[in-house]
Amino acid sequence: MAKTKELSKDVRDKIVDLHKAGMGYKTIAKQLGEKLTYSNVLLELTQLGGVVMEETNREAVATAVQRVAGMLQRSDQLDKVEQYRRREARKKASVEARLKAAIQSQLDGVRTGLSQLHNALGDVKDIQSSLADVSKDWRQSINTIENLKDVKDAVVQHSQLASAVENLKNIFSVPEIVADTQVLIEQAELLEAHRKLMDLECSRDDLMYEQYRMDSKNTHDMNLIRNYFGAVQGLSDDLAKQLWMVLQRAMGTVRRDPTMLVSVVRIIEREEKIDRRMLDRMKQSGFIPPSRPKRWKEKMFEVLEGTVTTRIEGSQSVTREADKMWMVRLLEITRKYVLDDLIVVKNLMVQCFPPHYNTFDRFFKLYHNAVSMRVQELAAEDLEANEIVSLLTWVLNTYKSVEMMGHPELLTEYDIHLMDPLLPQKVVDELLSKYVQTFTSNITGWLRKALETDKKDWFKETEPEADQDGYYQTTLPAIVFQMFEQNLQVAAQIDETFKEEVLKLCLKQMNSFLIRYREEAIAYKEDHLRDRQLPQCYVQYMIAIINNCHTFKESINSLKRKYLKSTEPTQNDAAIERTLNDVAKDGCQFLLDEVFLDLEHHLSELLTRKWLTGTHAVDTICVTVDDYFNDFAKIKKPFNTEMTSEAHRRVVVEYIKAVMQKRITFKNADERREGADRMIKEAEQFKFLFRKLTAGEETDRLCDAIAAIAEVFKLTDPTLLYLEVSTLVSKYPDIREEHIVAILAVRGDASREMKQMIIETLNQNKPSYAGNTQHIFKDITVPTVTMTSMSSSMAATANKLLK
């Protein structure tokens, strides 16, 4: 105890910490150093335990006092003291019982452990004694083993002699067996031939093995055995050739004589077993017979793969030079071969191979790989557009369809969704890009050729054909859209996305084509103007050109509805619509120009002295227009309606131009009245004509402009002239100052002062007009000479007034 007190406080703290960490007192003593003895540590821990117990007791008493104080806080709780005491006594007894049970359980475990350790100690001693006896016996037997070496050699020699005796019959009859085996191979008795071959190989291999065991370095004897059995290797090679030949013809053999194929598989399985046995013996002895392992099973699969590849590659019966449809024929033959062969594999060949070969899966993959290699070779060739489409359609659609790999008989054996694609996506994209380039070039040529053919028809002496409604047309729209339809149907066989891409390409080319179409129509008109007698059917073919625009629109919309999923307009729609409208508008304008070229002489007679004295110019104009519009009735709406409105407007404008050109100046009221009456009558003639041409639609406003001017001429009281002119201006707000001056000049009785007053007053009270009002005077110009002289006259009048 005294020694423990001599320990420093640091050492005592370390002992406590290590003890709390689970170390024993011996370990603690070693840990803290040699100067600290076991007794020091033990006494320290004992003293610590006493201190801990005392501290624990004090804490327990304090806790009890506190608890009792809590129970007896009121005077009425003193009556329950006995009850509290008994309850605490029960709790204490319960805790002590649990503690005793736990300690007893621990003691029982310790007792059991000690017993097991005691038994283990006894077993270790027994084993130690037995090992000593074994070691003693082994040392005594070393000399005995060395004395048995002669016996061992004798056993080896006996084994060799026994093997030689066993194979003695085969050794002497090797030439005879070789000859018999050769005959059996030639007669296709493959199983029997293989049995004899195995006997020969077994004899050779056993002799060589025994020789190897006796003297592995004696190459002379080994070569002697090998040479004696030299013909055996030739038999093995000949038999292998027969096996490979049968496998190369497996598809035919399995239909005709499946037992032959079964025999081949049995032979290969036998050889596989022998290979495995020889390899296992090599691992033990290091000896391997000649030509082993044969690996005929691997060779069998190589032969089958080559057979499948040859069958796929040999399906091409024609070339491009001999048949333009060579690609279609090739792919169809390939499809038929693959489907027929796989059905044979499923129904017949699977039964000829062991189940673990997974025969169908293997053949399925072989055919898939062979077809993939073949189509990649085809894709690498310089294919034309139709060949590209045929190949891609077959690869992307036909191959996995029910017509081929998706056939109902095959689906039960293999999931086609697990197959790799026949062509890499990069190759597919390259083919599609090449097709688009070729198609673009081809369609440009086709469209140019179609337009050239149509142009030749324009110069024919016979009228163009009419449709079922009697409208003139040419074959151009039908040819163009038949061409588009065929290519879109072909593109649709590949996939939806590509189909839409081809349609957009067609529309893009269509826009370029229509621009050329418009240029050719303009050139056609210019050729006609050089000699209006040619072409004889110029009007009819120009009508057909206009109608073709309507047909083009309908055909384009039809293609879009049929081949486009989206209803949104494409980027070429607006350009196509604009170009078609321009072509039709130009055509209508050219026809009206033709009409007014014929009317030019008669229009020049209007508002002249000849006209005033009596002429049939307007009658002739109406008859001519009516005659032309009998042909124009074959123009489709809305172009027909627009053309009639434009003709009406131009007739009225030309009539009013005659007024503005001051071809006549009325000398007196009678001439003004007579001229005005004629103008009103002729306005009614125009109304009647265009009501007829427009099927009763409103046509009065334009012709009323002629009547309104006539009213200005007809007025007898010059003082009311301003009011009449004001009425004219209010009806036609686009009338300009020079127009009024020209009208007053034709009237002939308006003084300069009156003209100036009317102009100035109108300028001050110029009416406004809506933007949608139909313009008449806007495009009518007054000759410059007239305006210049009028300006000079007005200037002179102004000077006189100033004076």
UniProtKB/TrEMBL annotation:
Cellular component terms (Gene Ontology): exocyst; Golgi apparatus; growth cone; membrane; midbody; perinuclear region of cytoplasm
Cited InterPro entries: EXOC3/Sec6, EXOC3/Sec6_C, HTH_SB, WH-like_DNA-bd_sf
Localization: Cell projection, Growth cone; Cytoplasm, Perinuclear region; Golgi apparatus; Midbody
Gene Ontology MF term list: SNARE binding
Domain Sleeping Beauty transposase HTH positions: 1-35
Source domain of life: Eukaryota
Keywords per UniProt: Acetylation, Cell projection, Cytoplasm, Exocytosis, Golgi apparatus, Protein transport, Transport
Biological processes, Gene Ontology terms: exocyst localization; exocytosis; protein transport
Main location: other
Function: Component of the exocyst complex involved in the docking of exocytic vesicles with fusion sites on the plasma membrane.
Record-stated family: Belongs to the SEC6 family.
Subunit composition and interactions: The exocyst complex is composed of EXOC1, EXOC2, EXOC3, EXOC4, EXOC5, EXOC6, EXOC7 and EXOC8. Interacts with EXOC3L1. Interacts with BIRC6/bruce. Interacts with MYRIP. Interacts with SLC6A9.
Designated name of the protein: Exocyst complex component 3
Organism: Coregonus suidteri
